[in-house]
Structure to design on (505 residues):
């Protein structure tokens, strides 16, 4: 749930400080229920009451206690946003006066219970906020913080086209350099060409700023011809004249849609999720720099120079993030990307798994030059620097480990086989030695018996010799049987030893 953790920031920002003085009191929820639970029976009547309707399309809560608790925090945040005191805290007095002229309502639609309502209203993304203003449906895809949402709502209720009437307003126009902006010169508000321009502005309101002038003096300072429209990319010194004059609504819309991804764009709280989802081939080149910090300002100027030199490259889009605008996300970014946001950083990030590769910048050395930065960016665009390389290295390491394990197993098997062969050879040698010893003993015994018989019985006849021969044969048979038994026992023992070795292995 992308909103959940941000509600804590809302509640903290709207808490009450015990030392607050009059005029600086931070409001707390007063307990009044200002958020409508929309259903099939009441949604039409409720929405008719307001000029602007803000609807939070949320997932079904069910009976889960934790989900209920989170949802109650979300609802409380919406309650706080509708409080006049909260508006006073968030906006200046003149802004609050403008809000007094507009009725803004807040409602909730449950994904499961109010599915039919969501379908009729065109709500298709759960956990999103939709703003209904006149005939337009605007999806709010930014941070759910009270000040951010209220500021966005203020932009919504403003006219899609802001008219430049004097020098001060012209100076304010030139001071806007972080957003896409268009300016045109028309004869009057009733001009059919201005009406086409105004209709196109409604399609992109309030995300893209549209300006116009009817004053020839202002037009000359902007170098505009009648019915001409200039397109300003963020951080660019010179605009681009949109081809075709006069322009229709369709021509304007088509041109903007083809050029709505700037070379250098700033991540804004009110459109942070939409910007992050607009990746190129699943990757973002991300630069962190604090504009108010000397090093951050220097690095940002280098980024602007690189962007101006490469504004015609459709494959290059750098997201600049000022950490001061996202204090709650700083620890997360530092932990996820393993970087220190106390100094400027630039890297390439895989949007799916947050793998990243960062340019090595020494804090003690000067910032990289524009040429050095361009070379690094070129390596990123060509694929020489790829955040997915770390994944490939990990896979290779795993394969190497597997190969090493297999080699170890093979070596162990070879050693075991060698041991078995050695054991078999030793056993065979022992058997041969035993057989030789037994044969020698038999021969010695036979010789001794024959000598004794010759000395003691020289006068015996051939029958006695035959008897002695028979006895000798019997003795030899008995000895041979004993030898065979011994060999069998030895072989059995050797086999048992081999089996034991195999079991151990």
């Amino acid at each position: 749930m992308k909103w959940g953790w941000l509600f804590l920031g809302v509640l903290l920002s709207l808490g009450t400080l015990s030392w607050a003085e009059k005029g600086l009191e931070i409001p707390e929820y007063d307990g009044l229920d200002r958020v409508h639970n929309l259903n099939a029976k009441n949604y039409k009547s409720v929405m008719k009451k307001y000029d602007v309707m803000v609807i939070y399309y949320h997932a079904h809560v069910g009976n889960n206690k934790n989900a209920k608790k989170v949802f109650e925090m979300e609802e409380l945040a919406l309650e706080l946003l509708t409080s006049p005191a909260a508006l006073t805290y968030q906006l200046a007095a003149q802004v609050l006066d403008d809000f007094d002229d507009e009725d803004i309502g807040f409602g909730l639609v449950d994904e499961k219970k109010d599915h039919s309502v969501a379908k009729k209203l065109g709500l298709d993304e759960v956990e999103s906020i939709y703003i209904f203003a006149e005939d337009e449906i605007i999806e709010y895809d930014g941070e759910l913080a009270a000040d951010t949402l209220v500021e966005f709502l203020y932009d919504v209720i403003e006219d899609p086209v802001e008219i430049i009437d004097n020098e001060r307003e012209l100076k304010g126009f030139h001071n806007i350099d972080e957003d896409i902006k268009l300016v045109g010169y028309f004869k009057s508000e009733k001009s059919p060409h201005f009406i086409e321009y105004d209709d196109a502005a409604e399609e992109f309101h309030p995300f893209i700023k549209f300006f116009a002038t009817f004053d020839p003096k202002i037009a000359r300072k902007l170098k505009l011809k009648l019915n001409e429209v200039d397109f300003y990319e963020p951080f660019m010194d010179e605009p681009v004249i949109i081809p075709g004059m006069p322009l229709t609504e369709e021509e304007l819309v088509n041109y903007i849609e083809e050029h709505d991804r700037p070379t250098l764009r700033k991540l804004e709280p009110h459109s942070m999720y939409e910007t992050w989802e607009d990746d190129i081939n699943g990757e973002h080149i991300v630069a962190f720099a604090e504009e108010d910090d000397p090093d951050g300002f220097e690095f940002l100027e280098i980024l602007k120079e690189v962007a101006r030199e490469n504004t015609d490259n459709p494959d290059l889009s750098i997201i600049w993030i000022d950490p001061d605008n996202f204090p709650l996300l700083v620890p997360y970014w530092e932990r996820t990307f393993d970087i220190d946001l106390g100094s400027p950083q630039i890297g390439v990030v895989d949007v799916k798994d947050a793998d990243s590769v960062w340019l090595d910048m020494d804090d003690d050395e000067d910032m990289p030059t524009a040429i050095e930065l361009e070379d690094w960016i070129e390596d990123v665009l060509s694929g020489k620097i790829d955040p997915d390389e770390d994944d490939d290295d990990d896979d290779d390491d795993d394969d190497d480990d597997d190969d090493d394990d297999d080699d170890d197993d093979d070596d162990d098997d070879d050693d075991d086989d060698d041991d078995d062969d050695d054991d078999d050879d030793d056993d065979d040698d022992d058997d041969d030695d035993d057989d030789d010893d037994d044969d020698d003993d038999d021969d010695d015994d036979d010789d001794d018996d024959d000598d004794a018989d010759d000395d003691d019985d020289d006068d015996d006849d051939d029958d006695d010799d035959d008897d002695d021969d028979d006895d000798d044969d019997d003795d030899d048979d008995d000895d041979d049987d004993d030898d065979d038994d011994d060999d069998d026992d030895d072989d059995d023992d050797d086999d048992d030893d081999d089996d034991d070795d195999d079991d151990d292995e």
